[in-house]
Amino acid sequence: MKKSRLVFQKELKKLRQDTFEMIALSKEMIEKSTSSFVCFNETKAREVTEMDDAVDKLDKKIEHRGIEILATQQPMAKDLRLISGILKIITDVERLGDYSVDNANLTEKLSEKPSDEFTQHILNMKKTSIIMLDKCLLILKNGRSKELSEIISMDDKVDEEYYKIQDTTVKYLKDPKKNKRDHESMIALMAARNLERIADHISNICRRSYYILEGEHIGKNQTF
Amino acid sequence: MPKNIIKVENLNLWFKNKKILKDMSMEIAEHEITSIIGPSGCGKSTFIRTLNRMNDLIPTCRITGNIFYENKNIFSPGIDVTNLRRRVGQVFQKPNPFPKSIFENVAFGPRLYGEKNKNKLNSLVKKYLERVGLWEEVKENLNRNALSLSGGQQQRLCIARVLAAEPKVMLMDEPCSALDPISTAKIEDLMQKIKNDVTIVIVTHNMQQAARVSQFTGFFLMGELIEYGKTNDIFTKPRCKKTEDYITGRFG
Fold it and tell me: A–B: how many Cβ contacts below 8 A?
């Protein structure tokens, strides 16, 4: 089969590449912000804030280009699903960046390195979230949707870690010996909450990816 | 799927030895708009011309299979072809008004079917010109030659002429391909307005038009019906790769 609509195909390719770049940047922000928090590294935290500008710029660029392609190329079927899916995905990706900035800012509110009782769970949450994002990105790139429901279910692991941090925080607040560290525990809880939201947004990205690839909601037979 | 008005069963059609339509089966839903899409030469126009036996006029045409219009086989010996074409009217790509007045164009069908009363003809002409949104534009001079109208007006006049014969099905073969976007929009609006009375089958090269106006779409390729289903499904999630390749423009 001869290739046709070359300009359109080129535009779609650029849109995909920009989206992958935005996801990769957000991933780096999640890693860096978590690392800045658990290591109490304020320099790293500032880098995260700077990276957010690039994510926001890509968000606007992709949205603008996506709308231009819709207006000028009238995409259909899988192309239409790709563009509409990307326009939704970038909102979730942009939120990944925002939550990372929030966590970087929380680093600056710490007075010392947080306790391992928190950081081990925070690192687990980050690790699971990054695995989810990496796998989703790979699926978006290679077009095979099989594993997506498995990836979405990994969000439960992140939630479990978050509940552990909640329990630890409550324990700290109740224990007179430890409650002098209530400031630290509250900040750790906030950071964990941000990571929990990050995993939720990654789940959304997986759901959108499934729609892009299969044209229906994950786990349901009906279309939108 | 709503009630069907036309049922096509294992339709094959040849011009001389060349097979144009291959074993086609499909049902046309009543009071809905059905689009037929596909690349040039895939048999779209031949197909819709078969629905009112317009291909009978081509001596080398040979057909096997059945087409039922309101449960009657249109190829049965007892079928009155003139009456069939009255019930299954057609609008063509290029507007083809008769070189007569606007009035005479619309009155042509009713006159042919026996209406002689001048007052009744007047009211029928007004009714159908209003129906197609042309009345206000032409009411001052109905004796004006139809050929002096713009392309879009001529096409709406042709639709009024078909409607005046009170068809149950209207076949439209690329009715907007020669029209500007405003005239196209008027015809598309008109189609939505009349579909409760007239079932429409439209052949179009404009996929956006098919997506905009129709409830069902059939994709033809090299004489075969590749996919037929709800328009929303065809344009967002087609089942066949060939359909997807065509509607996404990957079909070279």
Answer: 48
In whole angstroms, what is the distance from residue B242 CA to residue A152 CA?
Answer: 32
- Please answer whether residues A75 and A8 qualify as being in contact, where contact means their C-beta atoms are separated by less than 8 angstroms: yes
What are A200's two structure tokens?
A: 């939720």
Assess if residue B107 is contained within a domain.
no
Put simply, the chain A residues between 69 and 108 with a CB less than 8 A from any chain B CB are 74-81
pTM beyond cutoff 0.95: no
Q: Kindly determine whether residue A78 and residue B244, on different chains, have CB atoms separated by under 8 Å.
A: yes
Determine, for residues B207 and A75 on separate chains, whether the beta-carbon distance falls below 8 Å. Answer: no
Q: Where does residue B14 rank: exposed (0-12), middle (13-18), buried (19+ CB within 10 A)?
A: middle
Distance of CA B173 to the CA centre of its chain: 6
Query: Chain B partners of A77 at a C-beta cutoff of 8 Å?
Result: 235-238, 243-244, 247-248
As a whole number of angstroms, the distance between CA A185 and CA A183 comes to 6
Residues of chain B with pLDDT under 70: 1, 252
Quick check: is B157 in a domain? no
Give the domain range for residue B76: 4-97+168-247
Q: Does residue B132 lie within any of the structural domains? A: no
List, as one string, the DSSP characters of B71-100.
Answer: TEETTSTT--HHHHHHHEEEE-SS----SS
pLDDT digits (tens, 9 = 90+) for A36-51: 999 999 999 999 999 9
Domain of B8, CATH number, reads 3.40.50.300
Nearest chain A residue (CA) to B211? A76
Domain count within chain B: 1
ipTM of predicted complex:
0.73
Q: How many residues does chain A have?
A: 224
Comparing alpha-carbon positions, the chain B residue that sits nearest to A1 is B252
In a domain, B135, yes or no: no
Residue A179 has pLDDT above 90, yes or no: no
Going by pLDDT thresholds of 50, 70 and 90, the confidence category of residue A5 is: confident
